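thread: overnight batch results

M.L. [08:02]
morning all. the overnight job finished for the chain we discussed friday. pasting input first so we're all looking at the same thing
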Amino acid sequence: MIRVVIAEDDLQIAEIQRRFLERVDGFEVIGLAHSLIDAQDMVEILSPDLLMLDIHFPTGTGLELLRWLRSSNQRTDVILVTAAQEVDTLREALHGGVFDYILKPLVFERLQASLEKYKTHINRLAALETLAQGDVDTLMHDSTVSASKEVTSRLPKGIDALTLNKVRGVFSDNQNALSAEEVGQCIGVSRTTARRYLEYLTSEQHLQAEIVYGTVGRPERKYLLPKKRSA
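M.L. [08:03]
and the structure it wrote out:
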């Protein structure tokens, strides 16, 4: 479970954020802070995985708290949720290492996408023991467009990047061995389509395949992350 503190001085907006977060699986709100000092105290005491942080507070800015987080080596990640539209503010936020920058008014689908991306990101980190360049490229969620185009251009016929990422995402959230049918159900494609992508990932050594015998002795091919990358 990913533990989250919400730092927002507007009580109504903070409550909306809390309700939105509770609708996303895998996240738990452990604190609501309505001031910068309360947010700092909660980070120090509760050590949340993620801080949902506004920028404008009566006594200062969320960017000041962000600088404190980094200077004190706090391991809490940050998603900014703010009405601040200044480019300089975004630039400073990026320098501070925020995971995402969401503009108000907050839309549930946008927040959900950000949280799911964050969950996938930390699951991938947890599954790795050593890094290859492909792992780094995947983890850096703000990859450049040119890099994305280069990867897409290398894909064989019948393999598209969007579906491929969905298949990889299944294994980011699940360390068990899965059949093509199970993967297909997870992402909404046929077993045949899922098997094509699974075999491609196996050939690229991103997955490994094993034969599993059922209760009646019928063999079934299942796929899982390589042992060296398992958590």
